[in-house]
Write a structure and sequence with these properties.
The protein is 79% helix and 0% strand. It has 71 residues and is mostly helical. The chain is globular, with a radius of gyration of 11 Å.
């Protein structure tokens, strides 16, 4: 479900943020996580189309896409 995937993405974002020593919301806002959970992007380009900044998409996009593909 979208809610389950949202929670998975939120956890993933949290781990990535800790590794980068930034607050989770600084990587991605909640609204983009919710949008990702419903639209299930499969490429970095699709993440960028959703409003994910290019540098963030390049840095953590593959980790997020991996989580989406497993859900």
């Amino acid at each position: 479900s979208d809610d389950a995937l949202y929670e998975i993405l939120k956890t993933c974002r949290g781990k990535l943020a800790v590794a980068r020593k930034v607050a989770p919301y600084m990587l991605l806002p909640e609204r983009i996580l919710r949008s990702m959970a419903s639209s299930r992007p499969t490429t970095v380009a699709e993440l960028c189309e959703m409003g994910v900044p290019q540098n963030v998409a390049n840095d953590i996009g593959s980790a997020l896409i991996d989580e989406i593909s497993r859900a």
